[in-house]
Amino acid sequence: MGKIVARPETGKLYFDFRFRGKRCREQSTLPDTSQNRKQLEKILARIEAEITLGSFEYAAYFPNSPNAEKFAAMSKNAVPSFHETPLFRDFSDDWLNEMKIQWRQSHIKTVTGTLNNYLNPHFGEKEVGCITKKDILDFRASLAKVTTRSGNSLSASRINRIMTPLRMILSEAANRHEFSSPYHGIKSLKVPRTDVEPFTIDEVRQIINTVRSDFRNYYTVRFFTGMRTGEIDGLQWDYVDFTRRQILIRQSLVDGRMEHTKNDGSFRTIEMSQLVFDALKDQEEATKTKGFVFRTRTGGPLNHNNVTKRVWYPLLRHLGLRKRRPYQTRHTAATLWLAAGENPEWIARQMGHTTTEMLFRVYSRYVPNLTRRDGSAFERLLINEFDAQANPEEETNS
User: Fold this and answer.
1) Mean pLDDT, to the nearest integer, of 111-118?
2) What is the model's pTM?
3) CA 193 to CA 187: how far, in whole Å?
4) CATH: 1.20.120, 1.10.150, 1.10.1760, 3.30.70. Which one for 88-177?
């Protein structure tokens, strides 16, 4: 629905309405008074009625407007240049409001940032039905030229995360307004596989034996449960079951706020080993059975950035170990379980993976002998068979 608006810099009124999916703004010479507003509102009502009936002629109301020429040319050539669809900015706002109910606050914050910083500045004034495949590819190419605060270019994975809301918005707009999504056929950028860097059991022993005493239980639990940072920092005593020797993962600490786990796989139960059980029992003496298991002196949750900078990295430097993110404790748990010969399906459940596919794709190279995925069994078979053929008399005598 159109409206009459006053320009702040001139105080003059102008028409703001949509025609053939295009947002049109036409200036008047009238100052902003209640009488002039009523007069223009009557004209606007007549314009919108004619648009609805299909009898509106742009030049009849705004003969000197560049839009009059444009729409006249469209009618003459009978080639529709505009889909009657909303502007990207308007549609994306509606889409975001509809999607919020099913997202965690952290994800809402991420998508909102993507819209405000990237998508709306580029596509905001385009109508969703007029965005082309070339527009999308040009936009993605422009992202590769963006530099971060550290002076680095955006990574392929970061660019893919920016493009995902664009794909979802255009797909939804295409369904609602019955046009083909221009995103069809555009594949995500190939992301180089990131290599995990788990700690060896000897390195784990050094870390746990050397770390300051008030964080020894914390890192013991991290190394031998595979919990994510947000999961262990948000762990509360209500979800520690000493009777069944289980840790229930139901929530996660994200940006200082407790949120439900991000998917069904993350909602899980972790079995306590004896080391973890003892560490939590010892921690129980320090923080009692209320609130967060690992917390600050004031009772609040740990700040992972603070812990990483003040405890984790200085400890690695002190031990002469290669600098690695704390998340590698999770990868370490997976490789240690595999090396111990635990059932892969059980490990996947402990990690919060819905299948074992990721487990073997990411971690199996660290434990080739114990998982028997190094070809040694096949080699033994060949040696035995060829030895048998080379020495048939020995086989007969035996």
Assistant:
1) 95
2) 0.63
3) 17
4) 1.10.150
